[in-house]
Amino acid sequence: MYSPTLLRYFREPKCVGVLPSPAIQVEVMNPICGDILRLSARVVNDAIQEAAFQAKGCTASIAAGAALAEWAVGHTLPQLAALTAVDIENLLDGLPNESKHAAALAVDAARALARL
Question: Which domains are assigned to the chain?
Fold first, then answer.
Protein backbone atom coordinates (compact mmCIF):
# COMPACT_ATOMS: atom_id res chain seq x y z
CA MET A 1 0.00 0.00 0.00
CA TYR A 2 1.25 3.49 -0.80
CA SER A 3 1.64 6.19 1.84
CA PRO A 4 -0.62 9.27 1.79
CA THR A 5 2.48 11.34 1.01
CA LEU A 6 3.33 9.26 -2.06
CA LEU A 7 -0.25 9.46 -3.27
CA ARG A 8 -0.25 13.25 -2.82
CA TYR A 9 2.91 13.56 -4.95
CA PHE A 10 1.25 11.35 -7.57
CA ARG A 11 -2.13 13.09 -7.60
CA GLU A 12 -0.98 16.68 -7.09
CA PRO A 13 2.54 16.94 -8.52
CA LYS A 14 4.27 20.28 -8.58
CA CYS A 15 7.21 21.20 -10.78
CA VAL A 16 5.75 19.35 -13.78
CA GLY A 17 7.11 19.86 -17.28
CA VAL A 18 10.36 20.69 -18.98
CA LEU A 19 12.29 23.89 -18.34
CA PRO A 20 13.48 25.81 -21.41
CA SER A 21 17.12 26.41 -22.24
CA PRO A 22 19.49 27.29 -20.62
CA ALA A 23 18.20 24.74 -18.10
CA ILE A 24 20.02 21.42 -18.04
CA GLN A 25 18.10 18.21 -18.63
CA VAL A 26 18.56 14.47 -18.29
CA GLU A 27 16.44 11.45 -19.05
CA VAL A 28 16.90 8.07 -17.39
CA MET A 29 15.12 4.79 -17.87
CA ASN A 30 14.70 1.60 -15.90
CA PRO A 31 15.45 -1.06 -18.52
CA ILE A 32 13.54 -3.73 -16.60
CA CYS A 33 10.16 -2.04 -16.18
CA GLY A 34 10.49 0.68 -18.83
CA ASP A 35 9.76 3.61 -16.50
CA ILE A 36 11.25 6.89 -17.76
CA LEU A 37 12.09 10.01 -15.76
CA ARG A 38 13.12 13.32 -17.30
CA LEU A 39 14.53 15.93 -14.91
CA SER A 40 15.42 19.49 -15.83
CA ALA A 41 16.84 22.26 -13.68
CA ARG A 42 17.89 25.87 -13.87
CA VAL A 43 21.17 26.12 -12.00
CA VAL A 44 22.94 29.28 -10.86
CA ASN A 45 26.31 28.98 -9.09
CA ASP A 46 25.74 25.27 -8.37
CA ALA A 47 22.37 26.02 -6.72
CA ILE A 48 19.15 24.72 -8.24
CA GLN A 49 16.81 27.66 -8.71
CA GLU A 50 14.02 25.81 -10.49
CA ALA A 51 13.35 22.16 -11.32
CA ALA A 52 10.78 20.23 -13.32
CA PHE A 53 10.08 16.60 -14.14
CA GLN A 54 8.19 14.42 -16.56
CA ALA A 55 7.66 10.74 -15.89
CA LYS A 56 6.19 7.79 -17.70
CA GLY A 57 5.64 4.78 -15.55
CA CYS A 58 4.03 3.50 -12.41
CA THR A 59 2.49 5.51 -9.59
CA ALA A 60 5.65 5.24 -7.48
CA SER A 61 7.96 6.45 -10.27
CA ILE A 62 5.78 9.46 -10.98
CA ALA A 63 5.60 10.32 -7.28
CA ALA A 64 9.38 9.87 -6.89
CA GLY A 65 10.00 12.23 -9.79
CA ALA A 66 7.64 14.81 -8.31
CA ALA A 67 9.25 14.55 -4.88
CA LEU A 68 12.74 14.82 -6.35
CA ALA A 69 11.96 17.91 -8.43
CA GLU A 70 10.28 19.64 -5.51
CA TRP A 71 13.12 18.76 -3.12
CA ALA A 72 15.83 19.85 -5.56
CA VAL A 73 14.82 23.52 -5.56
CA GLY A 74 17.10 25.37 -3.17
CA HIS A 75 19.67 22.58 -3.00
CA THR A 76 23.07 22.37 -4.69
CA LEU A 77 24.36 20.02 -7.35
CA PRO A 78 26.64 18.28 -4.81
CA GLN A 79 23.61 17.71 -2.57
CA LEU A 80 21.73 16.32 -5.55
CA ALA A 81 24.63 13.99 -6.35
CA ALA A 82 24.67 12.73 -2.75
CA LEU A 83 21.00 11.66 -2.71
CA THR A 84 20.35 8.00 -2.00
CA ALA A 85 17.40 5.71 -2.62
CA VAL A 86 16.68 5.85 1.11
CA ASP A 87 16.44 9.65 0.89
CA ILE A 88 13.85 9.35 -1.89
CA GLU A 89 11.94 6.71 0.05
CA ASN A 90 11.93 9.04 3.07
CA LEU A 91 10.53 11.90 0.94
CA LEU A 92 7.67 9.56 0.00
CA ASP A 93 7.19 8.22 3.55
CA GLY A 94 8.22 4.79 2.37
CA LEU A 95 7.89 2.51 -0.61
CA PRO A 96 6.68 -1.07 -0.80
CA ASN A 97 9.38 -3.56 -1.81
CA GLU A 98 7.94 -3.97 -5.29
CA SER A 99 8.20 -0.20 -5.88
CA LYS A 100 11.75 0.45 -4.68
CA HIS A 101 12.85 0.71 -8.31
CA ALA A 102 11.18 4.14 -8.34
CA ALA A 103 13.65 5.48 -5.77
CA ALA A 104 16.55 4.06 -7.78
CA LEU A 105 15.25 5.76 -10.93
CA ALA A 106 15.02 9.12 -9.15
CA VAL A 107 18.56 8.73 -7.80
CA ASP A 108 19.83 7.90 -11.29
CA ALA A 109 18.24 11.11 -12.60
CA ALA A 110 19.60 13.20 -9.72
CA ARG A 111 23.15 11.93 -10.18
CA ALA A 112 23.02 12.29 -13.96
CA LEU A 113 21.88 15.89 -13.64
CA ALA A 114 24.54 16.66 -11.03
CA ARG A 115 27.25 15.43 -13.42
CA LEU A 116 26.32 17.95 -16.14
Answer: 4-115 (3.90.1010.10)
